Amino acid sequence: MSQRVVRRPNVPLTAKDEADLTLLRTSPAFRRALERLSATGPSADEEVGEAVLLHAVLAAGLAAIRTNAEEEGYEQLATEYAESSAARRRVSRRRAPAWADES
């Protein structure tokens, strides 16, 4: 973790959460996946404490949320562009060509 810690909240964990964290600690495949998803996470080979592991999971989750929100924004921009493109085509079809005024 390269940034200064400003707060250490308590996080309630269910039995499933504990099992998932154990899997993240012990499974090389899950650790590699976490390493790819969390820019600030530990390497797959590195032994880490619970706080570092939880922070990596939080960072990976936030990155996934950010990616999803960006995708939604891009979809909205594409829809708006397609609508405005169709409107521009309609207007340009009604417009007489520049050479039509030549006398």
Structure description:
The structure is a single chain. With 103 residues, the chain is mostly helical. The protein has one domain. It is built from 3 helices and no strands. α1 crosses α2. The radius of gyration is 25 Å and the shape is rod-shaped. The N and C termini lie far apart (74 Å).
Unreliable spans? none
Tell me, rounded to a whole number, the average pLDDT.
86
Between the first and last Cα atoms, what is the distance in angstroms?
74 Å
**Number of strand elements:** 0
Broad structural category: mainly alpha
Q: Which descriptor suits the 3D outline? A: rod-shaped
For the largest beta-sheet, the strand count, sense and barrel status come to: none
Share of helix, binned: 55-70%
The fraction of residues in strands falls at: under 5%
Secondary-structure element series: HHH
Counted by DSSP, the helix tally is 3
What value does the Rg take, in angstroms? 25 Å
What is the count of structural domains? 1
